[in-house]
Amino acid sequence: MVKIALDAMGGDYAPQEIVAGGVMAVKELEVEVVLIGREDEIRKELENHDTSGFPLSVVHTDEVIEMTDHPATAAKTKKRSSMHVGMRLVKNGEADGFVTMGNSGGALATALFVLGRIPGVKRPALATIYPTIKGYTFLLDIGANADCKPEYLHQFAIMGNIYVRDVLGVKNPRVGIISNGEERGKGNKLVLDTVPLLESTPDLNFIGNVEGKDVARGVADVVVMDGFTGNVLLKGSEGIAWMLGKMIEQEVKKSPVAILGALLMKGAMKKVLARTDYKEYGGAPLLGVNGNVIVGHGRSNRIAVRNAIRVAKSMTERGVIESIGKHSGIIGRTKDEIDD
Amino acid sequence: MVKIALDAMGGDYAPQEIVAGGVMAVKELEVEVVLIGREDEIRKELENHDTSGFPLSVVHTDEVIEMTDHPATAAKTKKRSSMHVGMRLVKNGEADGFVTMGNSGGALATALFVLGRIPGVKRPALATIYPTIKGYTFLLDIGANADCKPEYLHQFAIMGNIYVRDVLGVKNPRVGIISNGEERGKGNKLVLDTVPLLESTPDLNFIGNVEGKDVARGVADVVVMDGFTGNVLLKGSEGIAWMLGKMIEQEVKKSPVAILGALLMKGAMKKVLARTDYKEYGGAPLLGVNGNVIVGHGRSNRIAVRNAIRVAKSMTERGVIESIGKHSGIIGRTKDEIDD
């Protein structure tokens, strides 16, 4: 049975929702879960659940990487953190994957420290699931690498392709690169230098440049970008969505008729929220680190935690790390070089 | 009286809405307007208006830079285009400013060709007015310069500061730089190298890094970025706003109750749209070119055209070009260098 280590201390609703999500997972997913964190707090939460007979265990540690911690510093100094302990289980083969809803930068830094990179991978990437009108798309890098080289973006595309194909089940994923214009030849130097690498990669369904406005239209299944651009795109989108919601709230409040209208629209609005909700997807992988690590949203509830565990299980079963490792021979090399 | 050359052929609703906007401007703004374009088409539109006694004239030219034209090529080859002709009027002192709703890349390329840069300015920038929960903020560059150097961003900040202070009337504008984290020290190499220049610029109210999610919160009045990031941020925001609107439409359609709710909310939603509407602001300047040039949205109606003319007039009256020229001595230099 696949065994997932779960960071019981990470996330806004830890340990309550994390423990509850872990319990859901063992009951529903045919998976073994190891809760990592302060044992007394975890045990107290477990009292609210009937877990007898389910493969659930606890590994105690008293340190936590907080959201306010500096990632690299925390990774180096907090060696008893729940992230360290959980990832060491993966490193030593005592767990197949690790799931956390904590500090994503801290998780990445700790993963690099404990697990290292998959041989051949130059830089790991932070990824996210981004809602579109058709479902979702997979974006990377969204913040791990503020400055990128073409080879990094090339690898992000290959890793994203494998993940989306094997874990999310998208056949022949459409892979694009974000740019300031959809025509070939549009882009900054990084994009212009990356496009030929993507075009000449065998078995990659590269569809070319993708404009910011077309991500939400669902034109691609995987979109690669440097981590600076990815962070700005993602947080800018969050900002606009927040603003529109706030403006609607402000304007509705001014009119009793509109308040009634809003009440009648509540069901429809809930469905819109559900379609843009991260909880369904549970979390996104740290792609390129030598172990299955899923980082979820800080605001994850038990359902998101359960789903993140499902994703980690699937990543294990589909052998994503092995596939990326196999492709490390062609990663960063063009078709001509491979044919040599 | 301030005299504005107006590109009658640029924009999705040209010449009808452009001519109508020009007519509104001469009637309402104490401004003289010169309509540039195919005279027969313009005269036909003018028949729908009573313009006798108002300072409105027509300069004929038969060429147009289309939205599909390649900017640099069009700027070089279409020398009888309405953009060329209008900007030559500015260059020769026959007009104080030029307004177009046409191809913004074409306008920038033509402006560089005809008007050149303000002495001392390294790169001109495309700017835009971006809606926020508090009103709006001024973003630049949004696409003119895909790759930037720190000196460019530094100049964008100084030019944006002058424009927002003198034309939009914001006292002591808060100037920020977009980054992947608000803490000092977060950023890509470009941001890290630009921040010290901004910090050491006298009379610049530099507030530091601004995250993508905080732009819409209205934390800054001016936000600078390279043109690649700006384009992705702007178009990504457009995409999300479109997606949310579309999702609401789709979900509402499924339920008669929600349809009724949407009808009752119509007034409130219209107010939200008005708050995010570009028409109020008319357009944004090409900052750094040696002449007052305002580029508006392709979908501009007559009101947006009128407002763009108002902005061009204000830019003239406030002497924005002269202010930027005066500051060209300190642009790109730090306080220490200036004190030398």
List keywords for this structure.
11 strands; 14 helices; 340 residues; alpha/beta; 2 domains; homodimer; globular; eleven-stranded mixed β-sheet; Isopropylmalate Dehydrogenase
How does the SSE layout of this entry go?
The structure is a homodimer of 340-residue chains.
Chain A: E1 3-7, H1 16-28, E2 32-37, H2 39-46, E3 56-60, H3 71-77, H4 82-91, E4 97-100, H5 104-114, E5 125-132, E6 135-140, H6 150-166, E7 175-178, H7 189-199, E8 206-210, H8 212-215, E9 222-224, H9 227-253, H10 256-264, H11 266-275, E10 284-287, E11 292-295, H12 302-317, H13 320-327, H14 335-339
Parallel strand pairs in A: 1-2, 1-4, 2-3, 4-11, 6-9, 7-8, 7-9
Antiparallel strand pairs in A: 5-6, 5-10, 10-11
Write up this protein.
The structure is a homodimer of 340-residue chains. Chain A has 340 residues and is of the alpha/beta class. Chain A folds into two domains: 1-121 and 279-331, Isopropylmalate Dehydrogenase (3-Layer(aba) Sandwich); 134-254, Isopropylmalate Dehydrogenase, CATH 3.40.718. Helices cover 46% and strands 16% of the residues of chain A. The first copy, chain A, is built from 14 helices and eleven strands. Chain A has helices at residues 16-28, 39-46, 71-77, 82-91, 104-114, 150-166, 189-199, 212-215, 227-253, 256-264, 266-275, 302-317, 320-327, 335-339; strands at residues 3-7, 32-37, 56-60, 97-100, 125-132, 135-140, 175-178, 206-210, 222-224, 284-287, 292-295. In chain A, strands 3-2-1-4-11-10-5-6-9-7-8 form an eleven-stranded mixed sheet, with helices on both faces. In chain A, helix 6 packs across helix 7 (189-199) and helix 6 (150-166) packs antiparallel against helix 13 (320-327). The longest helix of chain A is centred in the C-terminal third of the chain and has 27 residues, at 227-253. The first copy, chain A, is globular, with a radius of gyration of 21 Å. The mean pLDDT of chain A is 93. The interface between A and B is large, with 63 and 63 residues.
